[in-house]
From TrEMBL:
PANTHER family: HYDROXYMETHYLGLUTARYL-COA LYASE (PTHR42738:SF7). It comes from the Bacteria. Residues 6-273 form the Pyruvate carboxyltransferase domain. This is Hydroxymethylglutaryl-CoA lyase. GO terms for molecular function: lyase activity. InterPro entries: Aldolase_TIM (IPR013785), HMGL (IPR043594), PYR_CT (IPR000891). Keywords: Lyase, Metal-binding. Belongs to the HMG-CoA lyase family.
């Protein structure tokens, strides 16, 4: 049986924008997040407190987090890599912080300049301090379905890192198909194993749509009882010239599918499309989601 309600976590302002090469003005980000809030999203990842040299697009995280109109019913989240990032996030009073680690060694090294083993104590400290400040904590497990440097990542390796993350006391773990290579059978195999070893209540899925399989992967995940998915409005993100990089699963395509299946999300589709059109216009290029292609043809 399908679930009655699915939690859609909008990550466009973070995962979508972090890959955009053109500079997006801070006030545009703020206005976009305000439109998302008004559209009924219950969880929005608004930015990232990482080193500005690594992700220059999100160097205005603090301004964005403090200037958006906050709604008590909405969880505003931000990505943090370490204690320094956490402290900045706490100053801006976000509701949730997201730590991240990769299932593959070389991606972890390239992404955060540490081995997986060296990353655990950094994250443990972040989780403890975030909990002390009564923040919700989610953990991303990147390259869970494939690594741009190593290719296949063994399922047991994914489960082992996931278990270490969950042991730290995070509220939720999001399995990331960072480069969008997962296929439905692989997701089926992975979730069959995850079910045996981890608490499914705390599992979310984070698909990218490089090969157009993200919605198929969602369907398989729904069948396994997953009810939380990350997505980016319009399918924003990725660079057609960077090997392996592609946008997230498009929120508007996900929400459309769920609503057509009779599954609720709390999101108003017309308001969601207005928010998508707003960021599309600000970026000055068509967004790749199917929903936006329909609108753009009209
Ligand atoms: P590092 O250079 O190893 O850091 O970078 P360090 O601890 O050696 O410190 C070096 C300098 O950085 C120091 O400054 C620190 O203060 C500063 P200095 O003394 O030289 O002036 N620093 C910071 N500044 C601002 N904010 C901070 C911070 N931390 C240290 N938080 C670091 C390590 C983790 C900081 C760096 O590698 C980094 O910022 N990486 C970010 C990478 C990133 O954001 N990647 C994209 C997100 S992950 C993703 O997209 C996948 C996901 O979507 C899931 C999926 O798709 O699978 C989540
Ligand atoms: Mg991602």
């Amino acid at each position: 049986a399908w679930p009655e309600f699915v939690t859609v976590k909008e990550v466009g302002p973070r995962d979508g924008l972090q890959n955009e090469s053109s500079h997006i003005p801070t006030n545009v980000k703020i206005e976009w997040i305000n439109l998302l809030s008004e559209a009924g999203f219950i969880s929005i990842e608004i930015s990232s407190f990482v080193h500005p040299k690594w992700i220059p697009q999100l160097k205005d995280a603090k301004e964005v987090a403090t200037a958006i109109r906050r709604n008590d019913q909405i969880t505003y989240a931000a990505l943090v890599p370490n204690k320094k990032g956490l402290e900045a996030a706490i100053e801006t009073n976000v509701d949730e912080v997201a730590v991240f680690i990769s299932a593959s060694e070389s991606h972890n090294q390239n992404n955060i300049n540490k081995s997986i083993e060296q990353t655990y104590p950094v994250l443990r400290e972040v989780v403890e301090e975030a909990k002390y400040h009564q923040k919700r904590v989610r953990g991303y497990l990147s390259t869970a379905f494939g690594c741009p440097y190593e290719g296949d990542v063994p399922i047991q390796q994914v489960i082992d890192v996931a278990a270490r993350l969950l042991d730290m006391g995070i509220d939720e773990i999001s399995f990331g198909d960072t480069i969008g290579v997962a296929n439905p059978k692989q997701v089926d195999d992975m979730l069959t194993k995850i079910k045996q070893e981890l608490d499914m209540e705390r599992v979310a899925m984070h698909f990218h749509n490089t090969h157009g399989m993200a919605l198929a992967n969602v369907l398989v995940s729904l069948e396994h009882g997953v009810t939380t998915f990350d997505s980016s409005l319009g399918g924003l993100g990725g660079c057609p010239y960077a090997k392996g990089a592609s946008g997230n699963l498009a929120t508007d395509d996900l929400v459309h599918m769920l609503h057509q299946m009779g599954i609720e999300t709390g999101i108003q589709e017309d308001r969601m499309r207005e928010a998508a059109s707003y960021i599309q216009e600000a970026l000055g290029k068509p967004l790749p989601s199917h929903q936006m292609q329909v609108i753009n043809r009209m």
